[in-house]
Amino acid sequence: MNSPEAGPQSRLDAGQATMKGLFGVEFPIEPQPGEPHNAGDLNALLVEHAFLDSWARPGLDARTKSMVTMAMMIATGQPRELRAHVSGALALGIGKDEIVELLIHTLAYCGAPRAASAWVEVQKVFSR
Predict the structure, then answer these.
(1) Read out DSSP for 45-99?
(2) CA distance readout (Å), 47 to 29, 66, 85, 91, 106
(3) How far apart are the C-alpha atoms of 60 and 68, rounded to whole Å?
(4) Are 115 and 103 in contact (CB under 8 A)?
C-alpha cells in the first residue's frame, strides 16, 4: 500500500494497477462527454478507495474478496456492478460452478427475488 504521503496521482496509479492486476481492466477516469469536469474526481476516488484502500489490503485474499463482493452486490441489488465483479471473478479463476453455489447460498440469506435477479445478470456474463 502507498504511504499516506503519496500524492493523488500515485494513489490513482496504484489503484489502477491493482484493478488491472486483478481483473485485467482499468476504470476510465476522465469525464465522458456530457459529464461535468469533476466526474473525473469521483472516478479517481472510486478507484483509489475500492482498489487501493480495500482490494490492495493484505487481510483477505483476492478470491475471498471477490466472492464477498459478489454476495454484497446481490444483497444490495446492484446488477451492473454484479456483472463487472462476475467478470472479475472469472478472470481470477473462480469457476462458474462456484458462482452458482454463491447464488444458492445468497438465496437462503437474501431471498428468491434477489437470487433470481442476480442469476439473470450472471447468465449474461456467462454467455459472453
Answers:
(1) HHHIIIIIIITT-SSS-HHHHHHHHHHHHHHTT-HHHHHHHHHHHHHTT--HHHH
(2) 9, 16, 14, 18, 27
(3) 10
(4) yes
Sign of the CA dihedral running 14, 8, 29, 72: positive
Minimal CA–CA distance to 16: which of 34, 36, 30, 37? 30
Rounded to whole angstroms, how far apart are CA atoms 64 and 20?
18
Query: Beta-carbon neighbour count of residue 100 at 10 Å?
Result: 13
The grid coordinates listed for 63 are: 478470491
**Residue 114: how many CB atoms within 10 A of its CB?**
18
| Of 77, 91, 80, 87, the residue nearest 127 (C-alpha) | 87
- Spatial distance between the Cα atoms of 22 and 39, rounded to a whole number of angstroms: 24
The percent of residues in the chain predicted with pLDDT above 90, rounded, is 86
What are 35-61's pLDDT values in tens digits?
999 999 999 999 999 999 999 999 999
